[in-house]
Amino acid sequence: MSQLASPAHPILLLALLLALPVCGAGPAAAHAIVVTSEPTAGATLAAAPAQVSIRFNSRLDHERSRLLLIGADNAQTALAIAAEGDPVVLAAPLPPGLAPGAWRLRWQVLAIDGHITRGDIPFTLKAP
């Protein structure tokens, strides 16, 4: 009996065919990743910026994305994301009068490929 007639070959072939869709998932299945942010992660600022922005490597669904400002006391403030503008950028004005200390921007985005990603961008405001 030759090896090609062996019953193990159809099973091996079936396993390879089933694995192809998984192996073929490339950049189209990638999540939105932060490319740059203002402020940058870990930045120490003399004053709070008027606006924060985060640029991603993928187009976003702005209506289903979220941006929170979290203080050292873990109090959270939802930021109003600007609807117009660059489709790969989340931007929002900051509330005036932020106190010196540790802050975090917590983001959650829905990329147009359907994947949700989230993360934090910490920054510090120095006392005057």
From TrEMBL:
<dbReference type="GO" id="GO:0046688">
    <property type="term" value="P:response to copper ion"/>
</dbReference>
<feature type="domain" description="CopC">
    <location>
        <begin position="31"/>
        <end position="125"/>
    </location>
</feature>
<dbReference type="InterPro" id="IPR014756">
    <property type="entry name" value="Ig_E-set"/>
</dbReference>
<keyword id="KW-0479">Metal-binding</keyword>
<dbReference type="InterPro" id="IPR007348">
    <property type="entry name" value="CopC_dom"/>
</dbReference>
<dbReference type="GO" id="GO:0042597">
    <property type="term" value="C:periplasmic space"/>
</dbReference>
<keyword id="KW-0732">Signal</keyword>
<dbReference type="Pfam" id="PF04234">
    <property type="entry name" value="CopC"/>
</dbReference>
<protein>
    <submittedName>
        <fullName>Copper resistance protein CopC</fullName>
    </submittedName>
</protein>
<keyword id="KW-0186">Copper</keyword>
<dbReference type="GO" id="GO:0005507">
    <property type="term" value="F:copper ion binding"/>
</dbReference>
<dbReference type="GO" id="GO:0030313">
    <property type="term" value="C:cell envelope"/>
</dbReference>
<dbReference type="InterPro" id="IPR032694">
    <property type="entry name" value="CopC/D"/>
</dbReference>
<dbReference type="GO" id="GO:0005886">
    <property type="term" value="C:plasma membrane"/>
</dbReference>
<feature type="signal peptide">
    <location>
        <begin position="1"/>
        <end position="24"/>
    </location>
</feature>
<dbReference type="InterPro" id="IPR014755">
    <property type="entry name" value="Cu-Rt/internalin_Ig-like"/>
</dbReference>
<dbReference type="GO" id="GO:0006825">
    <property type="term" value="P:copper ion transport"/>
</dbReference>
